[in-house]
Write a structure and sequence with these properties.
With 101 residues, this protein is an all-beta fold. It contains no helices and 8 strands. The radius of gyration is 15 Å and the shape is globular.
Length: 101
């Protein structure tokens, strides 16, 4: 869905209750995408252009979760805030060892 321009955007109606979202368009200012205060996952593909920050938040959230242009992220809404569902990352060439499963 296009979020082009410089105005905040609120997901409504038929846009709700999807798991995957692809945001597109030339963004001309930092914007927030507002989602409902309900428990849900959001798989987001930020394909916007323009070099500005697109962030995701609930209507009551103070600090939104920022996206990086060209990135894909998984977020989780706990009913009040959007949080990054990915809490760890590996550096290229990292080796995982140890433990039995």
């Amino acid at each position: 869905m296009s979020v082009a321009g410089g105005t905040d955007y609120t997901l409504t109606g038929s846009e709700l209750n999807r798991i995957s979202y692809k945001f597109t368009g030339a963004v001309t200012a930092d914007i927030n995408i507002t989602v409902p205060n309900t428990v849900q996952q959001y798989w987001i593909d930020d394909e916007t252009t323009g070099g500005f920050t697109v962030s995701v938040k609930t209507s009551t959230q103070v600090t939104p979760a920022a996206l990086t242009n060209g990135s894909r992220n998984i977020f989780y809404c706990d009913g009040s805030d959007i949080v990054n569902a990915v809490t760890a990352s590996l550096s290229p060439g990292a080796v995982i060892t140890g433990g039995s499963f």
